[in-house]
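Hi both,

Apologies for the delay on this - the queue was longer than expected. I finally got the zinc ion-bound model through. Below you'll find the protein sequence and the ligand SMILES exactly as submitted, and right after that the structure tokens for the full complex including the ligand.
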Amino acid sequence: MRWPRWLTALLGALAGALPVALAPDATLFVPPAAPLAVSGAERWACPMMDYIGNAPGTCPICGMRLEPMRAGELNREQQRRLGLRTSVVVEGTAMRVLQLGGIVGYDERYTETVLARVAGRIVRRHPATFGCCQDIAAGEPIVDLDSPEAYAAQVELAAALAAGDTTRAAALDERFARWQLAPLAAAIRAGAAPSRIVTILSPASGQVWFADEEAVNRALRVGSAVAADSPLLTVVDPERRVVILAVPEIHAGLVANGQRVELAVDALGALPPLSARLGRVAVELDPRTRTREARVYLASARQLPPGATVSARLRVALAADLGPADPEDPASHGRFLQVPASAVLSTGVRHLVWRLRARQPDGTVQLEPVAVALGPRVEGGDGEERLIVRAGLRAGDEVVTHPAFLIDSQAQLAGTPSLLFPDGLPRPADAAP
Ligand SMILES: [Zn+2]
């Protein structure tokens, strides 16, 4: 197929815009010596869209008769060649789609820190603590401590029992319970001899977790002194995970507890995304990262390695005030006029769509540029990317979604109103003498 000349002309016009964009301001804002519009009163185009000229006549390429060129008017053949597509402006509910990043961790609500409640010196480290991620049962030994403090309490308890001082004995029982060493008190009551060695037991079943292996090994080194209530080890639930998502400040107002979230894990590649709900959204923003934490709790997620990065897709139904609606309550969802994002041409300040003004019986369409005021980018029910329209269009309006840019460029070439030239370009006849 032949490369159409009008396309060459258009590309040339765009390439010509580049030096303008790069030129210093002083050279830009002098009135042009000649109007940017074409010199003739009208431009003439071949119906096959392969030639544009300044005078009537026949097409030098295919010999067809040239027709006066009117921007925004396309016959059937031109529509077919351009691949013209339109879409109807709709009013309906809308979703904001947030793409967030997060980190997997063990669910802190099911994480136990093993503490030595009583002071002492480590004399033995038990096998369950010899490496990360071993299974451990409640009551399994962690370390043995040589504890003069615990020994003294046992001696005191034995003496109180021998003296029949039940008040004192009960107070000592309470102390052993607080140390989580109740079995020691029971042993003394059963007649055992006091011992300097006490064994610290795991309070929970799960998996030993070394967030920082070096720090754990230092804390559990045989011979090291342990102060009362110092942490020794962490036991986690191996099934449960939390994903901590960082919500950027600009979207912080859109997240709320209970919203659905789809999680995809980079490390797991092609697995289907996990569907979950936001379990806890922080009230405050982190002043360092300017993000708000949102947690997703997963009850059965052994396949997610802690520390893995997760991408999350959050679709937030919007209330009428553009805040988050209640996902479970359709009545709280706002309704908005929406236009496909592909229909909107934008300079960053001015936004424009090409609207169908009329459709002739012969299939010719007449299009007109309409300036619009826009709200945020949203997703329609069909997953299409849309923009909320605040002004400029009505429900039922038909707008060009493809190729709006070419149609606008054609208007620029013809000198009629377009994105960059809201009033079009002056024709020589309009220019002051
Ligand atoms: Zn032609």
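Main takeaway for now: The two ends are 45 Å apart (CA to CA).

I'll put the files on the shared drive as well.

H.
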